[in-house]
Design brief:
Radius of gyration: 18 Å
Number of helices: 8
CATH superfamily: P-loop containing nucleotide triphosphate hydrolases
Structural class: alpha/beta
Strand content: 25-35%
CATH topology: Rossmann fold
Helix content: 25-40%
CATH architecture: 3-Layer(aba) Sandwich
C-alpha cells in the first residue's frame, strides 16, 4: 500500500443530502453532510431517535440512494456506478454489523462467516480457512460448527463481526452493535472491537445510543437537524 493510499480517506461524504416527501411536504433528513473517515479511525455517530442516523449509515453503505451528493469508498463513487458494481464494491470494501446479527439460521458459524467470500467466488477451502482464523480471533474456536440457535447473544454478535471482517474491508459500518446485549456482554464486544481495530487497522463507523460505546471511539459526531457536527462526550 502506498503512502498516498494511507493518507486518503477510506470513506467520504460529499454534500450528502436526503429528502423525503411527507403528506405533500418535503422533509430534509440530511443536509449537505460532509465527512471523512481515515484508515484505522473509529467514529461514533450519535443523535436522538429519528434524527436520521440509520438513514445516513445506509447511504454510507450504498443501501439507500441520496437525493444529492455522493459517497466515496476507497476513492470510488458509490452512486456513480451500476447496482452490480455497487454490490461488488460493498462486498470488497465494506463490512456491516447490525443490532440484530442477521445470521442465516440453517448454517453454522463457520459457514455464515465464509458466505461473503463464497459470494465473491473464492474457493471453499480458502474461504473456510480465513473464516476459521477470524472466528478463532474473536474467541469462538470451539463454536465453528454451531448454528446461531446454539449460540448466546454475545457469541452471535461475535460471529457477525467476524463475517464483517472476513473480506478485509476498508471500513465496517455498525448500527447499534451492542443495543441488544446486556451490559457485561456489551463491554466484551466493545473490547473486542477495539482490539480488532488495532490488529487489522480497519475503520469503524458506529451508530449508537450507548454513551459508553461512543466514548470508546476515537471521534464522536452528532446528527441533529440534518447536520453532522463533532462533539465531546
Amino acid at each position: 500500500m502506498s503512502n498516498q493510499d494511507m493518507k486518503s480517506p477510506v470513506l467520504e461524504c460529499i454534500d450528502l443530502s436526503k429528502q423525503y416527501g411527507d403528506a405533500g411536504e418535503q422533509v430534509d433528513v440530511l443536509k449537505g453532510i460532509q465527512l471523512e473517515v481515515q484508515r484505522g479511525e473509529t467514529l461514533a455517530i450519535v443523535g436522538s431517535s429519528g434524527s436520521g442516523k440509520s438513514t445516513l449509515l445506509n447511504m454510507l453503505g450504498g443501501l439507500d440512494i441520496p437525493t444529492d451528493g455522493d459517497v466515496r469508498v476507497d476513492g470510488r463513487s458509490l452512486f456513480g456506478i451500476s447496482e452490480r458494481q455497487r454490490a461488488e464494491l460493498r462486498n470488497r470494501s465494506l463490512g456491516f454489523v447490525y443490532q440484530f446479527h442477521h445470521l442465516l439460521p440453517e448454517f453454522t458459524a463457520l459457514e455464515n462467516v465464509a458466505m461473503p467470500l463464497l459470494i465473491r467466488g473464492e474457493a471453499i477451502s480458502e474461504a473456510k480457512e480465513r473464516s476459521e482464523a477470524l472466528l478463532e480471533s474473536v474467541g469462538l474456536k470451539q463454536r465453528l460448527g454451531h448454528k446461531p440457535g446454539m449460540l448466546s447473544g454475545g457469541e452471535r454478535q461475535r460471529v457477525a463481526i467476524a463475517r464483517a471482517l472476513v473480506t478485509n474491508p476498508a471500513c465496517v459500518l455498525m448500527d447499534e452493535p451492542t443495543g441488544n446485549l446486556d451490559r457485561h456482554t456489551a463491554e466484551e464486544i466493545q473490547t473486542l472491537m477495539k482490539r480488532l481495530n488495532q490488529e487489522y487497522s480497519i475503520s469503524f463507523v458506529v451508530v449508537t445510543h450507548d454513551p459508553l460505546l461512543a466514548q470508546r471511539q476515537g471521534r464522536v459526531m452528532e446528527l441533529k437537524d440534518g447536520l453532522l457536527t463533532e462533539v465531546q462526550l
